[in-house]
Design a protein that fits this description.
It comes from Flavimaribacter sediminis. This protein is mostly beta strands. It is built from 4 helices and 17 strands. It is globular, with a radius of gyration of 20 Å.
Length: 287
């Protein structure tokens, strides 16, 4: 006989949650970047596809849960040792589903050593209605290292007719170079997200947005190329700070597809610039 549970009993059931930790370390061996550390626990997996060139190691971060909801927690730790180079992306867009309690937590700790280079290029973060997300990205750079990152975010898939009305997003980044703070970013959206995105000083009605940050000694040389590639809803700035130089690109779009079409040429150019000719955007980014 089937038994039914009353609401009180359902409320006391402990929901299954996703957790995981992934650690990746790379170093130079015989003048090539090789795997030094690989640790995988829970839903966090890391794979190394065939490299595009001998200039850098390519790595793919995978969440085997297929998405996150309230109470889930993933932790990533990336270490690029002296003079090594790596390009890190994700297998697919990360999805944050409706939360029935709690906040999904994602934490990334990144270290890039002297003369080393890292391209942190995750695919889009897709936010579903009533999702709840807290994410932190902490980056430690040497004064001679180079770092390229992108973080694109989509509020509902336009092609699927999805609308995000309510959500909670807390996104915190800290990038330090030689101990000095070179970039700090805090994005916080809560409540009526649809109304917030309509504001001119937030997204001006767009549902997809992205930020690119490039930190390197000669990053200013890429500014003119970026401005030529930037669409009408994107802008790039070269900023000189006490801790060093950086380029920051901001863009918005009306759909995830439109956003990716803007991002891809910029990231292709920047990846080849910081890693070297012959090494462009990861193949997983192909439309």
């Amino acid at each position: 006989m089937l038994q039914t549970l009353d609401k009180t009993a359902v409320d006391t059931i402990r929901m299954q949650r996703t957790g995981g930790t992934g650690r990746l370390g790379v170093r130079v061996v015989d003048r090539a970047t090789r795997l030094a550390t690989l640790y995988q626990e829970g839903a966090c997996k890391i794979r190394m596809p065939s490299p595009q060139s001998n200039r850098a190691l390519d790595a793919v971060l995978i969440n085997t849960a297929g998405g996150l909801t309230g109470g889930d927690c993933l932790n990533w730790d990336i270490h690029v040792a002296e003079n090594a180079s790596a390009v890190v992306t994700t297998q697919a867009c990360e999805r944050y589903y409706r939360s029935i309690g709690g906040v999904a937590s994602v934490n990334a700790s990144i270290r890039v050593g002297p003369g080393a280079t890292l391209c942190w290029l995750p695919q889009e973060t897709i936010i579903f209605d009533r999702a709840s997300l807290s994410r932190t990205i902490d980056v430690e750079l040497d004064s001679s290292s180079s770092y390229l990152m992108v973080e694109p975010m989509i509020f509902g898939r336009k092609a699927m007719g999805e609308t995000v009305r309510q959500a909670y997003i807390a996104d915190r980044w800290r990038i330090r170079r030689n101990g000095g703070l070179i970039h700090a970013e805090d994005l916080r959206l809560s409540g009526d997200v649809a109304e917030l995105l309509r504001k001119a000083n937030v997204a001006d009605g767009a549902i997809a947005l992205a930020t690119i940050v490039l930190v390197s000694a000669d990053c200013g040389d890429s500014l003119e190329k970026l401005l030529r590639l930037a669409g009408p809803r994107a802008g790039a700035s070269h900023v000189r700070a006490a801790a060093g130089d950086k380029i920051v690109v901001r863009m918005v779009a009306d759909s995830g597809l439109e956003l990716r079409k803007q991002l891809a040429p910029m990231l292709e150019m920047l990846t080849a610039t910081v890693i070297g000719p012959g090494h462009g955007l990861p193949k997983l980014w192909n439309l």
